[in-house]
Amino acid sequence: xxxxxxxxxxxxxxxxxxxxxxxxxxxxxxxxxxxxxxxxxxxxxxxxxxxxxxxxxxxxxxxxxxxxxxxxxxxxxxxxxxxxxxxxxxxxxxxxxxxxxxxxxxxxxxxxxxxxxxxxxxxxxxxxxxxxxxxxxxxxxxxxxxxxxxxxxxxxxxxxxxxxxxxxxxxxxxxxxxxxxxxxxxxxxx
Length: 190
Prior knowledge:
alpha+beta, DNA-binding, 434 Repressor (Amino-terminal Domain), Lambda_DNA-bd_dom_sf, six-stranded antiparallel beta sheet, 26% strand, single chain, Cupin_2, Jelly Rolls, 9 strands
């Protein structure tokens, strides 16, 4: 990279704005999720406010990205992805790719007999591959059971739900774009 620390700090605001736009958040939504007021977020994105750890840490958590991604830290040459699981609504997502573009996650879904399936829709497409367990996939009017080694691909505009087909956890590899990531990884608001 070779830039000065001033150059690095000046690039944080535009990087934050682009990340927020790619995730489809408004400043108001981001403010509600982080506890940082809209004015501060706007000034941070516009470069009128210096990025501090107190501001960047909640943003990194909401975006589910490492802090170094927000500040554009140079790569260390290590190609490994540092797995940082994210747990939402009892599901554990393990990111297997860097943020941006199509996202790869390992998804662990524990048995949840008390949960009534709620079909959802969102932008994008989803591809999944069952690693272990039996997956029950509700896709529109279809009721499917996938076993280890089976895969499915579908338009997420079709109402869908997935979970274990029995009292054991199910493990999946899942690929989706940022629209699907936003839908799956955001905290449910009730």
